[in-house]
Amino acid sequence: MMWDGIALFSGAPVRRSADGVLGAAGVPPVPEPERPRRAKVGLALGGGAARGWSHIGAIEVLREAGIPIDVVAGCSIGAAVGACHAAGKLGELREFALSLTKRRVMGLLDFHISGSGLIAGERLRRLLERDLGASRIEDLPLTFAAVATELGTGHEIWLTRGGLVEAVRASYALPGIFDPVKIAGRWLMDGALVNPVPVTAARALGADVVLCVNLNGDMRVRGTVIQSHGAEGADAVMEAAAEAAGALPEEPRRWPRIGGRRTKPKPRPEAGAPSGIASVMVDAFNITQDRISRSRLAGDPPDVMINPKLAQMGLFEFHRAEECIELGRQATKRLLPEIHEMISAAVTPV
């Protein structure tokens, strides 16, 4: 046996084993205690357009707290922020986000009518290439995956190798807004259509503890089921109420005179009525992400979910980066004790 670095034996012949450990003849050496293995931490970054700047704040707080990130799975804007973090370019992305104004955001959008989306995305691609260059996913210092959706089949595609910039572009190619991106024979579009918060990907890529940033967790509108609704409903009730109150049809003589003629004024838009194609697309995207996120997270919940307070943040308000980053920081700081506890509990022997 060993005592303060001196080998002490009781007369038995001493032998040196093949691995250099001293021991008495016929007595196997006492194995050293196993060292605990640090739990691998995975980060799932969800989609949500401009709200995704809060991912920057969340990652900053985790780094400041000394929490290592071994796996990143990102979707849409989450793929863009996650890629910049994995490539060591999060600081550059932060500076870019804070420099955005409404006018500069519009200047980055190269509109066209000949493609399958409103925006070609070439200006954004050049920006990504400026900071990420020719980086490849398999060469990154941590495990990374960008989630995309295959056009036509609806397959959920995990981009885990190849060009980093193209993977990010495919992951945020919102249908109708950006043109789909072709990678290895597949046309790909926004991964938020199938997996808005890719917890499953982070866990499958080897993470023992998965933290997720859900950009839609603070949405105040939660859809439900209206079990009976028909064409005759609110309109009939309103007409009956007007008749009971003695309301009469508006007479032409009361109409305003325009150009010498009385013209019936245009009716005011109904409350809640669609106000344009952009508004309809944003609402549809919000509803889709909310429903799919709730379903996917219920089936495979993260170990800790970070929900920044983003209800008042518009999907395309990219110029509000400072506020959004701070909301991400605040939400993550509140959960640091829980995150540390979860990681400590997941430590396992080698």
TrEMBL record:
Residue ranges, compositional bias (Basic residues): 255-266
Name of protein: NTE family protein rssA
Region: Disordered, residue numbers: 252-275
Species assigned in the record: Methylobacterium terrae
Alphabetically ordered keywords of this record: Hydrolase, Lipid degradation, Lipid metabolism
Active site location: 76, 190
PROSITE patterns for this protein: PNPLA, UPF0028
GO BP terms, alphabetized: lipid catabolic process; phosphatidylcholine metabolic process
SUPFAM superfamilies: FabD/lysophospholipase-like
Domain PNPLA: 43-203
Motif (GXSXG): 74-78
Pfam families in alphabetical order: Patatin
Similarity comment: Belongs to the NTE family.
InterPro entries tied to this protein: Acyl_Trfase/lysoPLipase, LysoPLipase_patatin_CS, NTE, PNPLA_dom
Motif DGA/G location, chain numbering: 190-192
Single GO MF annotation: phosphatidylcholine lysophospholipase activity
